[in-house]
Amino acid sequence: KQEVTQIPAALSVPEGENLVLNCSFTDSAIYNLQWFRQDPGKGLTSLLLIQSSQREQTSGRLNASLDKSSGRSTLYIAASQPGDSATYLCAVGALYDYKLSFGAGTTVTVRA
Amino acid sequence: DVKVTQSSRYLVKRTGEKVFLECVQDMDHENMFWYRQDPGLGLRLIYFSYDVKMKEKGDIPEGYSVSREKKERFSLILESASTNQTSMYLCASSLEWGATNEKLFFGSGTQLSVL
């Protein structure tokens, strides 16, 4: 069974600092990996999706990398802003049943 | 943009009540999902459906059932609500099962409290 871990559980940084969020997974047989953002009491919004054949994806200030062999993905957020404060979750799609397994998330606070 | 709408943001129910959570998507997606989210546990899949009238159990189906009579609508049913079903419930949809570029779109969630 796929296990997805996100460390740290919480992170607080001053505005302008670059953010590095980590996601690790136990089974490298995946078909994609997604990063989501969740604001308090709300649903999840898809940020980036990396297909299994890709190494990274970029959107604006966001960049996500994928290393299947080591079971890791990293989400970079450049020049953080208070509006980036949210919980970030990664989810891994398993090849054997096509279901997504989610990490518990990293809660980010960007201080003005 | 895809819109996934959950009928209630907050619900308060009594133990033993039958509870219906409704979800509608407007983008003709094949797949629909119900998750629950609890602090420190992440999202856990309750049920999913890859076609009308089709349903599959997820990781934690006990105490729940689902209904998908129309493609755009997926209902989660708590047959007899219990306090351990107090949680945030999230509905999601996606276009194509197992595609490597398959994105998941979520509703805003229903916070259910069972007293």
Folded structure, characterized:
The complex is a heterodimer of chains A (112) and B (115). Helix content of chain A is 0%, strand content 58%. In chain A, a hairpin with a 5-residue loop joins β4 (30-38) and β5. In chain A, the strands form two sheets. In chain A, strands 2, 4, 5, 9, 10 and 11 form a six-stranded mixed beta sheet that branches. Chain A has 112 residues and is mainly beta. Chain A has strands spanning 4-5, 10-14, 19-25, 30-38, 44-51, 56-59, 62-67, 72-77, 86-94, 100-102, 106-111. By secondary structure, chain B is mainly beta. Chain B has no helices and eleven strands. Chain B has strands spanning 4-6, 10-13, 19-25, 31-38, 42-49, 56-57, 64-70, 73-78, 87-94, 105-106, 110-114. In chain B, the strands form two sheets. In chain B, strands 2, 4, 5, 6, 9, 10 and 11 form a seven-stranded mixed beta sheet that branches. Chain B has a four-stranded antiparallel beta sheet with strand order 1-3-8-7, with no helix packed on it. In chain B, β5 and β6 (56-57) form a beta hairpin. The model of chain B has no long low-confidence stretch (mean pLDDT 92). Chains A and B meet through β4, β5 and β9 of A and β5, β9 and β10 of B.
Secondary-structure element order of chain B, N to C: EEEEEEEEEEE
Helix content of chain A: under 10%
Please, what is the average pLDDT of chain B? 92
In DSSP terms (H or I, runs of 4 or more residues), the helix count of chain B works out at 0
- Give the overall silhouette of chain B: globular
State the separation between the terminal residues of chain A, measured CA to CA: 41 Å
Order of helices and strands of chain A: EEEEEEEEEEE
Give the proportion of residues in helices of chain B: under 10%
Largest interface between protein chains, with number of residues from each side: A-B, 25 and 26 residues
Structural class of chain A: mainly beta
Oligomer: heterodimer
Poorly predicted ranges of chain B: none
Integer average pLDDT of chain A: 94
Portion in strands of chain A: over 45%
- As a percent range, the share of strand residues of chain B is over 45%
